[in-house]
Amino acid sequence: MIRLWTIVALVSGALVVGAIQRVLVQASTLDWLPRSALESATTDWQLIQSTVVSILAVLAFTRVRDLAKTFAASERVAGSILDRVRHVDLDAMDISPRESEVLNLIGSGLLTDAELSEALHISTSTVQSHVKSLLRKTGLSSRKDLIGVAHISRNRP
Predict the structure, then answer these.
(1) Euclidean distance between CA atoms 87 and 26, whole angstroms
(2) Which of 11, 76, 97, 127 lies 20 to 30 Å (CA to CA) from residue 30?
(3) Are 13 and 53 in contact (CB under 8 A)?
(4) What range does the domain containing 114 cover?
């Protein structure tokens, strides 16, 4: 995976090359450099700058392609979870108010017993009890599935 500092270094390099080109043009304009030196140096610097920009374009394309694959995989996983939990009707189940709170917190991203325990000011064993009860009542097997249930229940009219 390409690191951010590598991209920043390449962009900085391209900016430095551009700045050097401008200095050479100004030096030639003021007759500090002969025109032939300017043409030779400018061509070399333009080649370096074009190479750096081309490398950046390839790296950016590769990174965007990798991100697109990751997003596609995430969408497939989310779709799979939602397909597994669509049948769950919380209104038809005997969900306690505390279990409902636990479910809402799981849906908002609190997944560990410690996180839920801290948010609800209850012990981790009580959290585990509520989660097991929710899984039993819904017929599901994982907290990830409970995230899907929470999402669906939140988005119902």
Answers:
(1) 72
(2) 11
(3) no
(4) 90-154
- Convert the pLDDT of each residue in 111-156 to its tens digit: 899 999 999 999 999 999 999 999 999 888 888 888 888 887 777 6
> Please, which residues have CB within 8 angstroms of residue 24's CB and are 6 or more apart in sequence?
33, 37, 38, 41, 42, 45
Counting the structural domains of the chain, the total is: 2
Output the pTM of the full model.
Answer: 0.53
Query: Looking at 39, 56, 85, which one is the last position of a domain?
Result: 85
The last residue of a domain, from among 31, 50, 85: 85
What contacts 97, CB < 8 A, 6 or more positions away? none
Residues 36, 100 within the same domain: no
> Can you read off the two tokens belonging to residue 101?
């709170």
